[in-house]
Amino acid sequence: QLEDPSVIYDLHSLPQFAIICIANKEEELFSRVDDRLVSRLRSSEHVRMDKYHDEQLYDILSARAKWGLDEDVITDDQIYRIADAAAGDARLAIGILRTAAGKADRENHERIPDDILLDAAEDARAQIKQKSLDSLTPHQRVVYDIVREHGPVGPSEIHERYSEDVDDPRTKRTIRTYLSKMEQYNLLEAEGTSRDREYSLVDSAAASPMQ
User: Fold this and answer.
1) How far apart are CA 120 and CA 129, in angstroms?
2) What is the average per-residue pLDDT within 153-172?
3) In this structure, how many other beta carbons lie within 10 angstroms of the beta carbon of residue 115?
């Protein structure tokens, strides 16, 4: 979220601070800072966190079901299906389980029916998308709305339209960072190489379905 990542260098030089950087893509962070900071960050300790496997998601969901739900409210098969539909995204998997359990409880079901599980997957994706949209800064939201209204659209046209819509527009490089962030948040998708890349909204229907 940093508009100017050079602040990391300033903080790094102060002995009373310890810096923890969290980034979706390490190389994109390095591309935005000067060589002095890159060398310091590369020599720091790195913790890499990959997507969860289905078995790991199953364990995470099983523990929550064990402690948060009555016995036999959800089957092992249903938990596996949630894990598969989440495609490595623990936040989505937990959201599906929470949404399904809540709706089943409100409708007085002793067990979670499959149709509620299907609806919960769509609802959880919609909730996560809305949270991601709510996290955007005003300038990032302008960029998102331009892609929504005009996509597929390339970075140059996006920046041109963006510069017309806001006061004190950010640089083209910053807009590319915004676009990358929204791609990582699964709000936008990009097609083409760096020269002819175009951005459009993610098609929600293309998400992994609940089988």
Assistant:
1) 14
2) 92
3) 8
Q: What is the pLDDT of residues 34-80, one digit of tens each?
A: 787 888 888 888 888 888 999 999 999 999 999 999 989 999 999 99
User: CA 5 to CA 23: how far, in whole Å?
Assistant: 12
Contacting residues for 7 by C-beta, under 8 A, at least 6 apart: none
Q: Of 59, 65, 20, whose CA–CA distance to 41 is shortest?
A: 20
User: Count of CB atoms within 10 A of residue 17's CB?
Assistant: 10
Q: Which domains does the chain have, with CATH numbers?
A: 6-42 (no CATH), 54-132 (1.10.8.60), 136-206 (1.10.10.10)
The Cα 138–Cα 122 span in angstroms is 27
The neighbour count for residue 10, using CB atoms within 10 Å, is 11
Three-state secondary structure readout of 57-126: HHHHHHHHHHHHCCCCCCCHHHHHHHHHHHCCCHHHHHHHHHHHHHHHHHCCCCCCCHHHHHHHHHHHHH
Q: Which long-range contacts (CB under 8 A, 24 or more apart) does 201-207 make?
A: 201/147, 201/148, 201/151, 204/125, 204/126, 204/129, 207/125
Strand, coil or helix: what is 18? coil
CB atoms within 10 A of CB 142: 20
